[in-house]
Amino acid sequence: MCGFALVLGPGADRPTFHRMMAALAPRGDLAETRLDTDLLAGVQRLRIVDREHAVQPWCSADGRWQLCYNGEVFNHRELAAELDRLGRPLRTVSDTEVVLEAFLAWGPEAVTRLRGEFAFTITDTATGRVYLARDPLGVKPLYWSRHLRRLHIASEVKALVPVGAPISEVPPGHHGWADAVAGPDLVPYLDLSRLGSGPRIGDPEEAASLVREALADSIRVRVDTDLTVGVILSGGLDSTLALLHVRQMHQDCVAFTIGAPDSEDLAYARRLTADLGVHHEVIELHPRNIRLEEVREAIRISELTEYGDIINAVVSVPLFRRVRDLGVRVVLTGDGSDELFGGYPMYHQVGPEAARRLFLHKIRNLCRTELQRIDRASLGHGVETRVPFLDPALVELAMRMPVDLKMRDGQEKWILRRAFADMLPDYIRDRPKNPMSYSSGLHERARLYKPLFARQYRSFGYDLLEPVRRDFDTVLMRCDHDLDRAVAEGAARPDYTVLEHARDLAGAAKWNVAPALRRLTGSGRQS
Q1: What are the Cα distances from residue 33, in Å, to 41, 69, 141, 433?
Q2: Bridge-partner residues for 153, per DSSP?
Q3: Do residues 163 and 18 touch, judged by C-beta distance below 8 A?
Q4: 157: which residues sit within 8 A by CB, 6+ positions away?
Q5: Which residue, 217, 254, 264, 491, has fewest beta-carbon neighbours within 10 Å?
Q6: What are 129-154's pLDDT values in tens digits?
Q7: pTM (whole model) above 0.90
Q8: CA 462 to chain centre
Q9: DSSP states of 370-386
């Protein structure tokens, strides 16, 4: 995976372009550029597939078309074979070349053939038009801004801040054309609001079998590499399933876990990796070591707009720093499973139709919440993260299942536990869901700095895209899980009030002071 920047228009400004590229430098290990009078394009390339030959920006054989590409297309070998049969033999074995040749063979419809996690631009140098596309779930980011009759495109918000103009996001599953002064005219090639419109799957045995097959296939294509594959392991259900499959499918894997020394995550993950005989890298992080400096750096890297996601980023940044330091470039995570299989209480506190709308809302917004955290925290350290639970085929399958297969007998993600009952240790299968920052034991320390999040965010210029907002889940709860009310309330009053911040800070301060009081009074020594 990579990060890329592009400036299109008369007299394209090179100093601005070089600042854009510098902002993206951590996303790759090699900077590659093509600089013309009215088109400046560059890629910070993280070399994963065909590392020596997949140079970027990639150009067509006749030099007319130019591709800037971030991501992985997992079915690129099958597409390459199909292109060869059409008389379009390839010069490399890279997925980069496949993306451009597929576009030249099939036009914009080619994007529907790509199975992967991607964002890219293809510039027609003869006409000065550029085609933009983003993967169906928005795993990979893509933003644009226009200033002085020039179009600027980049993989991160921070790369567009130097432009000094409002920033817009290419929505997930959208594609379209632009030029220096008009567009992008973006349309959906996959409508996320229609996910799960196929026949319902109500039989537990059928559902379990289909889930088992789909997840195994999704992980299989994501471990097709000669590099070491890491797994971000919390010791929960989803990351455990990722590790169990990776261990079976790839000969060289390693697990990574972060948490406070006495946290649940470390305890579960240590037990699991010992049972499996998997190499385990543990990042012990004492809560007292989370200070404003660490919070500010997490906000700078992540660009996140919801408070809970920022707290999770504070935990994620040192985790991926260790992954990078050990030279691991590809990791898998269990993210996305909760949004598909009912890992949050909100889905089970409303009727079936309201639950379905909540599922779709969460899935549509993953690109700016959980997926954004993963992308920035990992590629901010030159690590490619793959999310097997968010393969479109698995997402579609999950959305065809009723809520009562996802919550049953008081247990969330019931169908997942049923599907993999023979693979999961009892202590993992029966472990209840606990959000990331809480189970790591680090949430309350990071929460101390919440009143400063918005100010830090604005200091980086990220409000050119949008402001920091209240956590949607909190707004939803206050609106009695009425989605329409919550969306309206979030738009009317995006951020928390001073009073709300004060109450939250008081709760966090009380939690952080309690351990010191116990040490001073001697209470709890026996335990």
Answers
A1: 6, 13, 20, 45
A2: 6, 144
A3: no
A4: 143, 167, 303, 462, 464, 465
A5: 491
A6: 999 999 999 999 999 999 999 999 99
A7: yes
A8: 18
A9: HHHHHHHHHHTTT-EEE
